[in-house]
């Protein structure tokens, strides 16, 4: 058998396995697709520093990079297995079976896949073995020629059909239709209008409100969970007086409030982009918890997403009257975008997202920190994670060239205390106060601006924020792990 024929048989066998797995998963539960289940499990087992690196380096494309990386690795293994099987189909058969077993293990590990889900990797393993051995037999015949070519075409065509079919069936839940049908979520208490002068966007800061399509996105979901509003139920249970099962219409029928909130990710490095602001519309989380009646001793609100991701939030924080924690249904005048948690998510001002902002939330359990560990806590991140006071320089950009008077602008945040002042210093000189943008509320970011007359040549500018509690951002650089980065943002540029 020629080398390329052997390699091609390896690839076609594996492609058939993945495609049939995807097709069966379309019926049994999309997250059971072996490729996705293995990918999601890989994400869960990736060491935290590597995950952090992926988020930092690839941003929102981290998952695409993982999927492409997996495809390359699997294709490589398939080629090797094909080549090893030139004389005897055993190595390829074993590979297909092993892929099936790995798939079964991954599916069993997924919290969001039902029992039936194992059918997908089992079907994948069987399809891989059968297709591989069939093509191998065709190609091993003395006068293989056109018959094996036809076999290759059939296998490739059927795989494409199965894969596309699985994708089609798996995404048949019409979540966009459900989202459109929600219509307007009109708040009974709208947020105050954003005042003029709330940002310095003309000078290079972000706009005050981040459009939904630009809002940063961080989550562990390889394929975005698809939950229709009409199927969604939020269970509130654990250490409560009354268990609640809230449906979407129960919540949207209440007096909705709108709050302008800046969200921040703990993975954000000094100077990083994982911070955005939106008008969130929803139901006060505190009201719902009071309705359930939180029992004494419950110090953790343990929230679970439909995809199995979990967060642990301090109960005392979400119960603070002026904290403004929300079960959010809407964002910037629309129902939540699917990637940002449709139908519902939590938003807690002043806490990093990984301990508070559960998207696609379906379960709220009142419990104790001592009794239950959430997703990232299990992986070495902090238990309590209030957002750290931070400032960032947005313009000029590092290493850029500037002509004439230099306008330095940036953003600062210190939810929920609020930004009191931002200072900058040039080349290690004295700190100078900047002008702040018009304040919106203490749980949102604030922009700052200063004009500097600098001599020609290279300069380093640093910024530091002070919040309303009197705390000033410190110079010492600390990594994002375990509970948020600190340090001054510093940029170097040249005046010409
Ligand atoms: N279901 C789920 N919710 C999640 C996460 C996740 O991985 N899965 N990530 C959290 C983290 S770390 C952050 S910073 C915020 C980000 O929310 P966004 O993607 O809407 O900006 O969501 C939080 N909610
Ligand atoms: Mo995050």
How would you describe what is shown here?
This protein is an alpha+beta fold and 496 residues long. The chain has 3 domains: 3-170, no CATH class; 179-379, Oxidoreductase, molybdopterin-binding domain (Sulfite Oxidase, Chain A, domain 2); 390-495, Immunoglobulin-like, CATH 2.60.40.650. 33% of the residues lie in helices and 22% in strands. It contains 11 helices and 19 strands. It has a 5-stranded mixed β-sheet with strand order 2-1-10-5-6. Strands 3, 4, 7, 8 and 9 form a 5-stranded antiparallel β-sheet that branches. A 5-stranded mixed β-sheet has the order 12-19-18-14-15, with no helix packed on it. A hairpin with a 2-residue loop joins strand 7 and strand 8 (334-335). It is globular. The N and C termini lie far apart (67 Å). The model has no long low-confidence stretch (mean pLDDT 94). Molybdenum atom (MO) binds at residues 218, 265-267, 352-354. Molybdenum atom binds at residues 218, 265-267, 352-354. InterPro entries: Ig_E-set (IPR014756), OxRdtase_Mopterin-bd_dom (IPR000572), OxRdtase_Mopterin-bd_sf (IPR036374). Keywords: Membrane, Transmembrane, Transmembrane helix. It comes from Saccharothrix tamanrassetensis. The chain crosses the membrane at residues 63-83, 90-110, 116-135, 151-170. GO terms for molecular function: heme binding; molybdopterin cofactor binding; sulfite oxidase activity.
